[in-house]
């Protein structure tokens, strides 16, 4: 089975060699490394060329004619790979020596699965562990993992990120079913789209191990865990109401866009989109609540009785109270 690594680069020279060396050091050797560079202005290309001259496996370096952005750059890179299994790779992480071996073994032992992702230890700019894993940050805990195994993966993903692209390995044969990658809204990047489509087909699994060091830093192009500034109680009662409603409207619009994309496909049963429809309606209701607290009451009570406030937060009573009183 031929193994490809798809790496996208953009001004990544600071950490690039660390990642490249971790690929070279895999217990199961890779067959090719395909890099698509999005017009870096640092010495990324020189580092890649130097590395290519030192390793026994093929290294193919492509420099884009124009800047494509992360999602379309990964789409191009994945399609240039020729391996049976492709490992998505960021430019600034560091792989566990057995990452390829363990994810490949999973796919060999689970022929019904088209992709597999893992946990990762989070590190900082200086490669020091921050004391958390990515699954801890996104709360992909034992309960969520059990739901995933019980065919609820798509419902989990409708609520937000779980599958980090840097941990993802997939079979090349599925590229035609997930391409082209949509760019309807910026949050739906390549890994989110692949994961949602495969989850709706029940074809993506996970390994509960930390198989790479995932770097969180201020200059990364995409990522997760960027904490929003905390809204104080004083803010809630004195801020412009649009500061509350606009993010809710954006969420409703994004979910509507996702609905449209998925409904347009022929390979997804409509009943699997029921929860997505309920989520979209919930955020649309919240985004259009009237200024009058009294007039809001019927809609808020209806969302409460229907149980849809769980889509806003596991502590569902907090957004409910906010909708009533802010």
Secondary structure: elements and pairs:
Layout: E1 3-9, H1 13-24, E2 32-37, H2 44-52, E3 58-63, H3 70-80, E4 85-89, E5 94-95, H4 99-109, E6 115-123, E7 129-133, H5 134-138, H6 142-158, E8 169-171, H7 175-178, H8 190-200, E9 204-215, H9 233-238, H10 242-263, H11 274-287, H12 293-306, H13 317-325
Parallel strand pairs: 1-2, 1-4, 2-3, 6-9
Antiparallel strand pairs: 4-8, 5-9, 6-7, 6-8
Helix pairs in contact: 1-2, 6-8, 10-11, 12-13
Walk me through this protein's architecture.
The chain has 326 residues and is an alpha/beta fold. The chain folds into 2 domains: 3-215, Spore Coat Polysaccharide Biosynthesis Protein SpsA, Chain A (Alpha-Beta Complex); 233-325, no CATH class. Helices cover 44% and strands 17% of the residues. It has helices at 13-24, 44-52, 70-80, 99-109, 134-138, 142-158, 175-178, 190-200, 233-238, 242-263, 274-287, 293-306, 317-325, and strands at 3-9, 32-37, 58-63, 85-89, 94-95, 115-123, 129-133, 169-171, 204-215. Strands 1, 2, 3, 4, 5, 6, 7, 8 and 9 form a 9-stranded mixed β-sheet that branches. Strand 1, helix 1 and strand 2 form a beta-alpha-beta unit. Helix 1 runs parallel beside helix 2 (44-52), helix 6 crosses helix 8 and helix 10 runs antiparallel to helix 11 (274-287). The longest helix has 22 residues, at 242-263. The chain is globular and about 70 Å long. The mean pLDDT is 92.
